[in-house]
Amino acid sequence: MKASDIISIGDLAARTGLSVSAIRFYEAKGLIEPFRSAGGQRRFLRSDIRRLSFIRIAQALGLSIEGIGTELAKLPHGRTPNTADWAKISRAMRAMLNAKIAMLERTRDRLDGCIGCGCLSLKKCALYNPEDRVAARGSGPIHVLER
Predict the structure, then answer these.
(1) Which is the most buried residue in 9, 90, 113, 142, by most CB within 10 A?
(2) 95-147 pLDDT, tens per residue?
(3) Torsion of CA 85, 86, 89, 95, to 10 degrees
(4) Quick check: 103 and 143 in contact, CB under 8 A?
(5) Rounded distance between C-alpha atoms, residue 143 and residue 28, angstroms
């Protein structure tokens, strides 16, 4: 490893546009792993620039910290990810995003139907749940979450 492969937390913040506190947060969540200099200062690998950039993009796409951590665990540690590494993550994320899109489309379609029916009567509404029969299938918005 060359000395130019190692950067300080301040340099990492400048390169990624993140605050030092955000970098520490991601460290605490296990998404990046610094090592310490002889003086106890955090030092990062240059490859962490890409890891943090990925984290920012994934969060902007709506992925959870836990989901991001799962995907980052698939990347090699200590080297900049290559095209094949990113392709694996992309395939996994595509499946996850497609599932979210499908759920949102079901929600939209069912909401349009409910609002569009105009009945405004729980006695006539097809979504009305007499005697709470749906509760046997689980808690929460079962109609929307079913696949």
Answers:
(1) 9
(2) 888 988 998 998 887 776 666 565 555 555 555 555 566 667 766 666 566 65
(3) -130
(4) no
(5) 37
Long-range contacts, 115-121 (Cβ 8 Å, 24+): none
User: Residue 12 is encoded by which pair of tokens?
Assistant: 């990492």
Give dist(CA 1, CA 29) in Å, integer.
26
pTM, entire model: 0.64
The three-state secondary structure class of 113 is: helix
Q: Which amino acid is at 19?
A: S
Q: 3-state class of 42 per DSSP? A: strand
Pair of tokens at residue 6: 């190692």
Amino acid 15 reads: R
Task: Render pLDDT for 55-98 as a digit per residue (tens, 0 to 9).
Answer: 898 888 888 899 888 888 887 776 667 788 888 888 888 888 89
Sequence-ordered strand ranges (E) for 2-145: 6-8, 35-36, 42-45
Say if residue 107 is exposed, middle or buried (CB neighbours under 10 Å; 0-12, 13-18, 19+): middle
Q: How many residues does the chain have?
A: 147
